Every structure is written in structure tokens, then in C-alpha cells.
């Protein structure tokens, strides 16, 4: 497992702040509005030097498993079909933030929504062990 850490302590300011982790492992309700952000490709082929952010909604596990039969408890789906909002190539590792809590990490997907995110609540015991070191 590759764990990257900062080479020095982060300086907190108006742009750099910690974000809360989920308190429980319960699933987010379907339709929960969340924000994603990243520097990934735009329109599937254009690089950007700007951080883009957009809103997506949580999909039900049942609906998401129609797109991704390999879906497991360590994954969560989100996206928006109406505006085709989704994470893109290059956004991997970026945040899925719902109600000001980090709920997911951009993982993988197809060329259209929904995208799949690593479900942070599934990994809380491991995250706490690493943070305690």
C-alpha cells in the first residue's frame, strides 16, 4: 500500500483547512447532494490549470450496481445524468464532499455518470490507525 504524506506540516489558512471524516459507516441517502472537485480533463480531452467543482447526487446501491456489477461496500456512486456532471480522467484522489464531510475519493467510472468513489466510512479503522502513527 502506497501512503503519501506531506513533506512538512500544512499551513492552515482560508484555502487550506481540515475536513471532518464520516462518524459512522451508514450509507448516505439516495439523492444526497455532494460536491466534487479536481484538475482533471474537461470534455474528455482538454487539460486545465484551474480547479473545477460541481455538484452531484448519491445513487442508490441497487441502481449503481446496474452500471457496475463489481460494486462493493467500499464503493459509493454519484453523478448527475441531467447535466452530465461527473469526475473525469485526472480527478482520481479528489474529494466527494457531502454536507461538509469527506465521504468519498474519486476512483473510477465510464465516460458518463455515475462515477465510483472509494467510500471513506468503510476505511475509518485503517484511517484512524494511520493517523495515530
UniProtKB/TrEMBL annotation:
Record InterPro entries: Peptidase_S1_PA (IPR009003), Peptidase_S1_PA_chymotrypsin (IPR043504), Serine_Proteases_S1 (IPR050127), Trypsin_dom (IPR001254), TRYPSIN_SER (IPR033116)
Superkingdom of the source species: Eukaryota
Keywords: Disulfide bond, Hydrolase, Protease, Serine protease
GO cellular component, one term: extracellular space
Molecular-function annotations in GO: serine-type endopeptidase activity
Pfam families associated with the record: Trypsin
SUPFAM superfamilies: Trypsin-like serine proteases
GO BP term, example: proteolysis
Ranges where the Peptidase S1 domain occurs: 1-132
Protein family membership: Belongs to the peptidase S1 family. CLIP subfamily.
Alphabetical list of PANTHER family matching this protein: TRYPSIN, TRYPSIN-RELATED
Protein name: Peptidase S1 domain-containing protein
Gene assigned in the entry: LOC102071916
Amino acid at each position: 500500500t502506497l501512503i503519501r504524506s506531506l513533506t512538512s506540516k500544512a499551513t492552515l489558512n482560508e484555502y487550506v483547512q481540515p475536513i471532518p471524516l464520516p462518524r459512522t459507516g451508514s450509507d448516505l441517502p439516495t439523492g444526497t447532494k455532494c460536491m466534487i472537485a479536481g484538475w482533471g480533463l474537461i470534455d474528455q480531452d482538454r487539460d486545465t490549470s484551474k480547479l473545477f467543482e460541481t455538484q452531484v447526487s448519491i445513487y442508490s446501491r441497487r441502481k449503481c450496481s446496474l452500471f457496475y456489477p463489481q460494486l462493493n461496500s467500499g464503493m459509493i456512486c454519484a453523478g448527475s445524468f441531467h447535466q452530465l456532471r461527473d469526475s473525469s480522467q485526472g480527478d482520481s484522489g479528489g474529494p466527494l464532499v457531502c454536507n461538509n464531510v469527506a465521504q468519498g475519493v474519486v476512483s473510477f467510472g465510464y465516460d458518463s455518470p455515475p462515477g465510483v468513489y472509494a467510500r471513506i466510512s468503510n476505511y475509518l479503522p485503517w484511517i484512524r490507525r494511520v493517523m495515530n502513527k
